[in-house]
Amino acid sequence: MYDVDTIRRDFPILERSVNGNRLVYLDNGASAQKPKAVIEAVTRSYSSEYANVHRGLHYLSNLATENYEAVRSVIQRFLGARHSHEILFTSGTTEGLNLVSYAWAARYMKPGDEIVLSVMEHHANIVPWHFLRERNGIVLRWVDISDDGELVPESVLEAVTPRTRLIAVTHMSNVLGTEVDVEAISAGARDLGVPVLVDGSQAAVHMPVDVTEIGCDFYAITGHKLYGPSASGALYVREDRLDEMWPFMGGGDMIREVRRDGITYNTPPHKFEAGTPPIVSMIGLGAALEYLEHLGMENVASHEATIRDYVLDQMEGLNWLDVQGRAANRGAIFSFTIAGAGHPHDISTIVDQKGIAVRAGHHCAQPLMERLGLTATCRASFGLYNTRDEVDRLVEALEICHDLLGN
Ligand code: PLP
Question: For ligand 1, what atom is nearest to the CA of residue 230?
Answer without folding.
Answer: 15
